[in-house]
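To whoever is on call:

I kicked off a structure prediction for a single chain this morning and the downstream step that reads the tokens threw a length-mismatch warning. I double-checked the sequence; it's 106 residues and nothing unusual in it as far as I can see. Pasting both halves so you can look.
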Amino acid sequence: MKNYKSEFLQYALDLFSPLGRLSTKTLFGGNAILKNNITFAMVFDGSIYLKTNKNTVKKYLDLNSKPLSYKKNNKTINLRYYEIPVEILDEEDQLIQWAIEATEIK
């Protein structure tokens, strides 16, 4: 029987299947999703995050998205990956557009 973690990763891969061939790797207790060997999404603790930059992060913040973060030396470190808002998860075309943008970020 599959565990929840692998089922949720498969769910994320299914969401991004219109992007074509994808790969995954385990990373810091979660999973990275890659297109052409470039990480564009992360799956951690039942959430899916997309890579952002200074041009794309605003739309995530406008929808109250939270960054993927961790604690180090009593400080919170925010990564450039933001959780996909529920409103976007429910809109396949928009989700794929956001994912394509994330794949283009270096």
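Update from on-call: the warning came from a stale cache, not from the record. Cleared it. Sanity check on the structure: The radius of gyration is 13 Å.
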